[in-house]
Design goal:
The strands form three sheets. This protein has a five-stranded antiparallel β-sheet. It has a two-stranded antiparallel ribbon with strand order 6-9. Strands 7-8 form a two-stranded antiparallel sheet. Helix 10 packs antiparallel against helix 11. The chain is of the alpha+beta class. It folds into two domains: about 100 residues, Phosphorylase Kinase, domain 1, CATH 3.30.200; about 190 residues, Aminoglycoside phosphotransferase (APH), C-terminal lobe (Aminoglycoside 3'-phosphotransferase, Chain: A, domain 2). It is globular, with a radius of gyration of 20 Å.
Length: about 325
Amino acid sequence: MSETTEPIRSHGVRITWADLPEQVRAWVTGQVGPVIEVLPQQGGFSPGTADRVHGERGSAFVKAAGERLNPHTPDLIAREIAVLDQLPGYAEAPVLLASFDERVEGERWVGLLVEDIAGRHPHTPWVAGEVAATLEALRALVERPLPEGVALPRLEVDLARDLSRWPHLLADPPADLDLWVGDNLHSLADRALDAPDRLRGDYLAHTDIRADNLLVTATGQVRVVDWPWATRGAAWFDTLVLLLNGRLLGGPDPTAYEGQLMDLGASEEDIDAVLTGLLGYFLHMARLPAPTGLPTLRAFQRAQGVAVAAWLRERWAT
């Protein structure tokens, strides 16, 4: 995955354990006992807390947020609770231990407690061994179709709006548009027209594969965490997103892994269409005001747009 001089880190600005309302902290201690140690975790863009909590009766990982931090974050945590409650065992997702969804002093707070998986995020820039281990973990997610009873959104429906942003860009191109993108604006828009339909499938898709949503255990196994965006869709999408993260954060040459996309059922046309749809999404979103409580998100989206544009430029040149 191509080397970058200053990798963009995917992180936001989080509250801490001490910032949680007493009612939320009491819920956690009711599960793990009096708290002995709290280890704040970095990564992700939620403004809520993300802590490893060690109590007298056990340990757990806790995420919690109130609607004043960001009006959408409690819904996102609630969505993850619903996902974790029904994922098949082969996903090896963190086990859901408890959940919280109550009004605290007039404000909705949502939290989840999952098993504390001993591990660390992959090294970035990426290293070859951890790329291979992550690819193996992603392949395990799609070794079989999702059971019919797992009620997840369809990937092509969930991303339909995101992958259809090119009309906004055609009507009002960003002032700082990349020259290659500007020269190919209409061709790119045409290529992305059927991007959502190319994501149809019946396999488990995490949809948000990044280094900060992965944990490397002591044995070198990679566990996928942070599941709110899970969907039912194409078997190759998560691997595509992983290769994008590698282009963004650097490491081994990602072109060496592109064959795995075809092994999982993608055609060259599928890859180009979905990458082009993602490019339109990142370019459009990067120019919007930052959402409440997420001051670093737009810069990260901009950096992803640069990485996707470079990838497409390479693909179109061959």
